[in-house]
Amino acid sequence: MAEEVKVLGLWASPFSLRVQIALNLKGLSYDYIEEDLSNKSQLLLQSNPVYKKIPVLIHNGRAICESQIILQYIDETWPGVPLLPRDPYQRAMARFWAAFYDDKLAPTLIGVYRTQGEKQQKAIEELLANVLLLEEALATTFNGGPFFGGESIGFLDVVLGSRAVWLRAAEEIGGVKFIDTQRTPLIYAWLQRFSNVEFVKKSLPEFDKLVAYAYNIRNRSLQSQPKP
């Protein structure tokens, strides 16, 4: 009997994109269901009653939530092309830097397009510093390889790469280059390689559409802030 694999997601969400890239990497077929977060479906609310958020992976009727947990579930359920390294140290490092990205770098990225003035400048400076930490990690911990996963895309590449288009959108909004050939040559080259992998390229949202979406979020965020 064929397996049921569904993804509940949002086209602009890097967290949804992670799941899609991982499934594509494994060569798996799945049904993608676009969610309207202003009018969440009963399927989403029933599948993730705790957080009520996307993405959700539904495998044979059972729901798995939270993108990094979903990636690890995918890797353990469908071995095929591995996402996480076999070496325990490298596996720990992949998880560490994935947590760094979500817990430390992502909030500064969000700050770039949701704030203005001094707050935005602070977010820009912190984001630049965090990207430089990733550059150093790729050079040392990950031996300057073509991917964080070594010779091929792995867990950390999927986690980081899923926000690549959002990082470019933040450059557009902030008027600053966060990744370039001078300051971050390794990250720059890595991002070019990652973005040009065929199954990744097909998954990435259209850039102009995403920038318009980001500006819409920015405008709503600024309008909701109290006047000085």
Automatic annotation (TrEMBL):
Q: Which residues form the GST C-terminal domain?
A: 87-228
Q: Which EC number(s) does UniProt give?
A: 2.5.1.18
Instruction: Enumerate the InterPro entries for this protein.
Output: Glutathione-S-Trfase_C-like (IPR010987), Glutathione-S-Trfase_C_sf (IPR036282), Glutathione_S-Trfase (IPR040079), Glutathione_S-Trfase_N (IPR004045), GST_C (IPR004046), GST_C_Tau (IPR045074), Omega/Tau-like (IPR045073), Thioredoxin-like_sf (IPR036249)
Which EC class does it fall in? transferase
Q: Where is the GST N-terminal domain?
A: 3-82
Concerning Pfam families, the annotation shows:
GST_C, GST_N
Q: Which organism is it from?
A: Araucaria cunninghamii
Q: Which GO terms describe its molecular function?
A: glutathione transferase activity
Tell me a GO biological process for this protein.
toxin catabolic process
Give the keywords, sorted: Transferase
Q: Which domain of life is it from?
A: Eukaryota
Family, similarity comment: Belongs to the GST superfamily. Tau family.
Reaction(s) this enzyme catalyzes, per UniProt: RX + glutathione = an S-substituted glutathione + a halide anion + H(+)
Q: What is this protein called?
A: glutathione transferase
**Any one annotated GO CC term:** cytoplasm
